Amino acid sequence: MIASIQLIISLAWRNLWRNRRRTLVILFAIVLGVWAMVVTAAFMRGMVFQMLEDTVDNLAGHVQIHHNDYLDDPVISNTFNPGNDVIKSITDDSRVTMWSDRIRLPAVISSERETAGITLLGVNPEREAKISFIGKAIVEGRFLNSADDRGIVIGQALAEKIDTRLGKRVVLMSQNKENEIADRGFRIIGIFDAPLDPTEKAFIFVGKNTIAKMLDLDLQISELVLRLHDTKDVEPFVTEKDGLLDDIDIMSWLEVEPYLELMIKMMDTSMFIWYLIVFLAMAFGIINTLLMAVFERTREFGLFQALGQKPRFILLQVWFEAILMIIVGLIVGNILSWLTVLATGDGIDVSVFARGMEMLNMSNIIPFVITFKDLLVANITVATLGMLTGLYPAWRASRLVPANAITRI
Fold first, then answer.
1. 160 phi and psi, to 5 degrees?
2. How many helices (H) and strands (E) does the chain have?
3. Is residue 60 in some structural domain?
């Protein structure tokens, strides 16, 4: 039996190269298909990875804690006191790597020439620098030294919008605890460069204690943001902690940014459609190539059967031709895919599509991320369905009537 299989494989391999040009064309199609599937999956996974990283770094974290009504109406009355023992037990959980408490409220900033609506972030600088992008985003001046720092840090895009610069004074206005307008002058001590321009225009950073005094907040905060060791722990963590306090919501990043979940589902669907298109193109190529080979060797197959060769031997011989093409195509395709990903280094620059990337809340550098799951799916899909498509030409060859096949011109 083993000797028969070895003979079939040997004959199949030799028959593949009887028409080199046709074999090379279909091998090129298979290699191109495998390469396209793997590289496209790596690019789309990279987009998802970058989107998630940007979202986490862009102030969202993995888990957020707010007053029940805060997200619907982010005003000063919907704040909460983080001194509760239950809140402390959440931040002390072993799954939490870092956390930051913020006063996050709508405000207006005015320079000598322009005024803009923004979101003020009263932060503890030491914690905030570890949990969000701001720790490595300062391009001019410095970040806040402490929660009592009286300076203000703004984005480059906002500085251009209100026509100001480092060292200048601006006036910050917001609503205090008594629902009255509170304002105060601040000197710009730092300017940051965020991955996304909308972030630079939307947020300013001030010391948490300084802004609390300005708004008469005492110990109240707007949100508590957590980062966990592993993203797989996010949903179990939220499920376990949610409901511990009646007036507090504990939400995962996907709940705070619901468009992310939609984008992930859309990309998974897009990859499935792309896989289907590539496979159909390869399937037609394999079937066409093998049917042509069967047509050219009709008399040969008829002679073999007339000499006593069993139909299943011919079926296996033609089928193994398809299998060998698939194996060679998968090997070369995977090697080229890996080389392509390695050649991209840290990713590709898509700044030419900057506007579109900003709409998706993504930076302009997209890394290629190959996962074992995507590799496995692509290879199993091509191998399994490729072998199935090879069965039809093989079956046609095995069904030839010897007398008719031999006399066929």
1. -70, -40
2. 15, 12
3. no
> Do 158 and 41 belong together in one domain?
no
The 10s digit of each residue's pLDDT in 188-236 is 999 998 877 788 888 999 999 999 999 888 788 888 888 888 878 888 8
E strand spans, 283-397: 348-349, 365-366
| Full residue range of the structural domain in which residue 353 is found | 2-55+260-407
Paired tokens of 191 = 């300017």
Q: From 267, 277, 227, select the one nearest 369 (Cα to Cα).
A: 267
Same domain, 343 and 394: yes
What the block records as the tokens of 307 is 């000499």
Total length of the chain:
409
Q: Are residues 188 and 236 in the same domain?
A: yes
d(CA 190, CA 144): 8
Q: pTM value?
A: 0.68
Residues 89-121 have pLDDT tens digits of: 788 888 888 888 899 999 999 988 899 999 999
Instruction: Name the packing angle between helices 258-296 and 372-398 (round to 10°).
Output: 30
- The rounded distance, in Å, linking the Cα atoms of 354 and 196 is 9
- Between vectors from CA 376 to CA 371 and to CA 381, what angle results, nearest 5°? 135
Q: Is 315 left (phi over 0), alpha (psi -120 to 50) or beta?
A: alpha
Q: Is the CB of residue 173 less than 8 Å from the CB of residue 183?
A: yes
Picking from 246, 278, 295, the residue at the C-terminal end of a domain is 246
Residues 6 or more apart in contact with residue 288 via CB below 8 angstroms: none
Structure tokens at 241: 């902690």
Question: Looking at the structure, do residues 329 and 357 belong to the same domain, yes or no?
Answer: yes
Contacts with 146 (C-beta within 8 Å, 6 or more apart), sequence order: 125, 126, 207, 209
